[in-house]
Write a structure and sequence with these properties.
This protein is an alpha+beta fold. Helix 1 packs antiparallel against helix 2, helix 9 packs antiparallel against helix 10 and helix 12 packs antiparallel against helix 13. The strands form four sheets. Strands 14-11-13-12-16-17-15-18 form an eight-stranded antiparallel sheet. It has a four-stranded mixed sheet with strand order 1-2-4-3, with helices on both faces. The chain has a four-stranded antiparallel sheet with strand order 5-9-7-8. The chain has three domains: about 80 residues, Uridine Diphospho-n-acetylenolpyruvylglucosamine Reductase, domain 2 (2-Layer Sandwich), CATH 3.30.43; about 110 residues, Uridine Diphospho-n-acetylenolpyruvylglucosamine Reductase, domain 3; about 220 residues, Vanillyl-alcohol Oxidase, Chain A, domain 3. Bound molecules: flavin-adenine dinucleotide (FAD). Keywords: FAD, Flavoprotein, Oxidoreductase, Signal.
Length: about 500
């Protein structure tokens, strides 16, 4: 009979050859994996005999395939869950929580594994894959409300809603689930008008550490409701489904402007000056990187801040009116290229607007911050990324005047009005090292301009202290207290323990 070590070495080699020699996250994992294999025994614990979904223990030959699939990112951390479980029902979840309590094993929920800190691959924890909790419930058109599971992806959710004339501010990217996205706040479309996505969460059904299922809302388990509107990847319960407040689907028009980095000094303040007149009817999204106007010859390609202004209204006329604040201003004059024709779009067309999603699995590290001074942040970020980013697909992103607010009750903490993030791309462990060094340089340079961070898009493996800076002092203190109330034995993996 083959011993487990042998099986794992073989599986590791199989997986590595599938990935190709360039994808190296796994190559450094041998020792931690070997160590974990020693401690495993049978395939499925007896206590989970009646669990109907998949259970993948470390002694299962599929373990590495699951390890690979649970997180979106190509480069994996050197940490190994004790087990992956994919429940099919609440009964399965009850068995799983009882087992976790009995064996004193920590638990972490996973919806689509897009969080850059890879909490879904926590050492020795049980990863609970909630992807089968993906039901979109009946839509009540009169109240514009519905229940939806954490495994529901952004785009299918909006397809179902759009058919009824409605829309929801789920992730810009169609293949991100609402599970983790909404817990951390959620920056979706039409943010200046609708605020953060979790502001549109009316209630949630949550399985607590003791296995009880409770409803959290403005009137029931109010502290739990407060926490889940903003806590991010450290929530201390399993969200089974959310009750969502949808909105009337708006009409949209789009205008585009490209600026070289030496134009930022004029361009960013020009947009900022228009925000009061815009009155939260338009969002100003900027991508900074090797993005070039259509038709740019190869030898003329360079770094740009490419700005899309999406203007919203109840009718197309309203959206056109909102767009005039920008199209009839100076912002076009500063641009090297612009297309200010107010192109009409439907809500679902928005999903095809972000070209950077295509290689998002190669992100090695990211930071998202809020600032009062986006001009300086973008200038410094652009200069350093242009000079030092080792992969030309690395880029920055900005949302000016994004209105990062949630009506109370919420743990989400408003820090400043403008959002800037950056994503460092790489394919090898050496890239990761170099990208972390660049992260450190950027952090030191930008620190004086940073008011706070966005909990969903910070790399807590490299910058654990940033979690604290996402919250006000009061809210941070209350988060710990609420966690203690609902999860006294720290059953759930959480950055609150760092
Ligand atoms: C390509 C891409 C595009 C993105 N676009 C956006 C965007 O437009 N706007 C934005 O705000 N963010 C965006 N993000 C960031 C995203 O919101 C966060 O990474 C978020 O945490 C991922 O959600 P998830 O459901 O995949 O969570 P996962 O990575 O699966 O889980 C992360 C953590 O959330 C918690 N969690 C997840 N599901 C549950 C559950 N059912 N019950 C309890 N806790 C749970 C757990 O603590 C878990 O560890 C994007 C990320 C990527 C990679």
């Amino acid at each position: 009979m083959m011993n487990n070590n042998h099986v794992f070495r073989r599986t590791l080699l199989k997986a590595a050859s599938l990935l190709g020699a360039g994808s190296t996250g796994l190559l450094s994992m041998g020792s931690a994996l070997a160590k974990t294999v020693q401690t495993t025994s049978s395939a499925r614990p007896a206590a989970l005999a009646h669990f109907k979904g998949e259970i993948i223990t470390r002694s299962d030959s599929r373990y590495l395939g699951w390890f690979w699939a649970m997180s979106w990112y190509r480069i994996k951390p050197n940490t190994f869950p004790s087990m992956f479980a994919r429940p099919t029902s609440r009964e399965d979840l009850a068995l799983l929580m009882a087992y976790a309590n009995q064996t004193q094993t920590r638990v972490v929920a996973r919806s689509s594994g897009h969080n850059i800190s890879n909490p879904v691959l926590a050492q020795d924890a049980i990863t609970v894959d909630m992807s089968l909790f993906d039901e979109i419930g009946e839509i009540d058109v009169a109240s514009k409300t519905l229940w939806a599971g954490p495994g529901v992806f952004s785009e299918p959710l909006n397809k179902a809603l759009y058919a009824k004339g409605l829309a929801f501010p789920s992730a810009h990217t169609g293949f991100v689930t609402i599970g983790g996205y909404l817990l951390g706040g959620g920056m979706g479309w039409n943010m200046p008008a609708w605020g953060m996505g979790c502001g549109s969460v009316l209630a949630a059904e949550v399985m607590l550490a003791d296995g009880k299922i409770v409803t959290a809302s403005a009137t029931e388990n109010t502290d739990l409701y407060w926490a889940l509107r903003g806590v991010g990847p450290g929530f201390f319960g399993l969200v089974l489904r959310y009750k969502l407040q949808a909105h009337a689907a708006p009409k949209i028009v789009k205008n585009t402007f490209f600026y070289t980095l030496d134009q930022l000094d004029k361009a960013v303040p020009a947009f900022l000056a228009l925000l009061p007149a815009s009155k939260n009817r338009s969002e100003v999204l900027g991508a900074m990187g090797m993005f070039n106007p259509p038709g740019t010859p190869k030898d003329k390609e360079t770094w740009h801040w490419a700005v899309n202004v999406f203007s919203y209204g109840a009718t197309e006329k309203d959206a056109q009116e909102a767009a005039k604040v920008f199209t009839q201003s100076d912002v076009g004059k500063h641009a090297t290229w612009s297309k200010a024709e107010s192109q009409p779009l439907g809500y679902l067309d928005l999903y095809s607007q972000l070209a950077t999603d295509f290689y998002s699995e190669f992100r090695t590290s990211e930071v998202a911050l809020f600032t009062d001074d986006p001009t300086q942040v973008l200038k410094k970020l652009g200069a350093r990324l242009k000079a030092k980013a080792l992969d030309p697909r690395s880029f920055g992103f900005s949302v000016l005047g994004c209105n990062p607010t949630v009506l109370e009750p919420c743990s989400f903490t408003y820090k400043a009005d403008h959002y800037v993030s950056w994503y460092l791309i790489g394919t090898t462990n050496d890239d990761v090292k170099k990208n972390y060094a660049l992260m450190d340089e950027l952090y030191q340079e930008l620190k004086p301009l940073i008011k706070g961070y966005y909990i969903n898009e910070i790399d807590l493996t490299h910058f654990p202290h940033m979690a604290r800076e996402c919250f006000s002092d009061d809210k941070w203190k209350k988060l710990h207290a609420v966690r203690k109330q609902y999860d006294p034995n720290k059953r759930f993996v959480s950055y609150l323990d760092a």
